[in-house]
TrEMBL record:
<dbReference type="InterPro" id="IPR006259">
    <property type="entry name" value="Adenyl_kin_sub"/>
</dbReference>
<dbReference type="InterPro" id="IPR027417">
    <property type="entry name" value="P-loop_NTPase"/>
</dbReference>
<dbReference type="InterPro" id="IPR033690">
    <property type="entry name" value="Adenylat_kinase_CS"/>
</dbReference>
<keyword id="KW-0808">Transferase</keyword>
<protein>
    <recommendedName>
        <fullName>adenylate kinase</fullName>
        <ecNumber>2.7.4.3</ecNumber>
    </recommendedName>
</protein>
<keyword id="KW-0547">Nucleotide-binding</keyword>
<dbReference type="InterPro" id="IPR000850">
    <property type="entry name" value="Adenylat/UMP-CMP_kin"/>
</dbReference>
<comment type="subunit">
    <text>Monomer.</text>
</comment>
<dbReference type="GO" id="GO:0004017">
    <property type="term" value="F:AMP kinase activity"/>
</dbReference>
<keyword id="KW-0418">Kinase</keyword>
<comment type="similarity">
    <text>Belongs to the adenylate kinase family.</text>
</comment>
<dbReference type="GO" id="GO:0000166">
    <property type="term" value="F:nucleotide binding"/>
</dbReference>
<dbReference type="Pfam" id="PF00406">
    <property type="entry name" value="ADK"/>
</dbReference>
Length: 287
């Protein structure tokens, strides 16, 4: 707790949320696992055994890379909750709570939400999960700064950090194609991406993730998915969050994963990199 006190000024943040995070985040039991044969130069960090199903993993990656998509599928496969701080922020935005207007101004300008707000929202989500008997987690959208990573390090032991990667031009195209059904809340993407390879890198193709017929007329675009805001979010990410990658790289917990394409191409490769059963994951990929 002393380390957290040094990181967060008491006048700006209540210690209640941090205390609850310490109680709620449990350390997963892990064991030695074999290196993935498909990624000999970027193996799964030792000491990580995803078969334990009580994992404590973090997803990193630029906005629009697909953290939520792959974290939600792994959540189903592993039976642990997927906790997206982006979803928590959007839920608060859609509420009539005191933070709603303040968050709207921050998000619509492509800026990062403050540590104090994010940790407060995460604390409330963990409290709700504890009441339901949840254990383990897949964190998506947190930490986004080294300061947040240090706070998380002080309250729990992260087993693995999965860093999803895509070229910036594809990230922009993906973000501009995102749509949400305003009735069922599901996410879709109307972008059809066919990028040619450059400088020896392979090309990337991603088919659109189209909605069923009953959702088509109800699709909306997120307020922050404009080209100017998307590029600002990428700039902020590169400025603030790239050091987080180095933070976990030096701890030997970072697994870098270059997405080779859309879900059909990337999902089995990701399972391979994580030493998970590809056949077991087929149903999650189709979800």
């Amino acid at each position: 707790m002393a380390a957290i006190t040094r990181l967060l000024k008491p006048s700006h943040f209540s210690s209640t949320s941090i205390s609850f995070m310490r109680r709620s985040l449990s350390t997963a039991a892990v064991s030695e696992t074999a290196k993935s044969p498909s990624y000999p130069h970027n193996p799964l960090p030792s000491g990580v055994d995803p078969s334990g199903r009580n994992v404590q993993w973090v997803f990193l990656g630029c906005p629009g890379v697909g953290k939520g998509t792959y974290a939600s599928r792994l959540s189903t496969l592993l039976g642990v909750p997927h906790i997206s701080t982006g979803d928590l922020v959007r839920e608060e935005l859609n509420s009539s709570g005191p933070l709603s207007q303040q968050l709207a101004e921050i998000v619509n300008q492509g800026k990062l939400v403050s540590d104090e707000i994010i940790i407060s929202l995460l604390s409330k989500r963990l409290e709700a999960g504890e009441a339901k008997g949840e254990s383990g987690f897949l964190l998506d959208g947190f930490p986004r700064t080294v300061r947040q990573a240090e706070i998380l390090d002080d309250v729990t032991d992260i087993d693995l950090v999965i860093n999803l990667k895509l070229p910036e031009n594809i990230l922009v195209e993906k973000c501009l194609g995102r749509r949400i059904c305003n009735q069922c809340g599901k996410n879709f993407n109307v972008a059809s991406i066919n990028a040619k390879g450059e400088n020896g890198s392979p090309g990337i193709s991603m088919a659109p993730l189209l909605p069923p017929s009953h959702c088509i007329s109800k699709l909306i675009t997120r307020a922050d998915d404009t080209e100017a805001v998307v590029k600002e979010r990428l700039r902020v990410y590169n400025d603030k969050s790239l050091p987080v990658e180095e933070f976990y790289r030096t701890q030997g917990k970072l697994l870098e994963f270059d997405l080779p394409g859309g879900i059909p191409e990337s999902w089995p490769k990701l399972l391979e990199a994580l030493n998970l059963d590809v056949h077991e994951g087929k149903q999650s990929a189709a979800a």
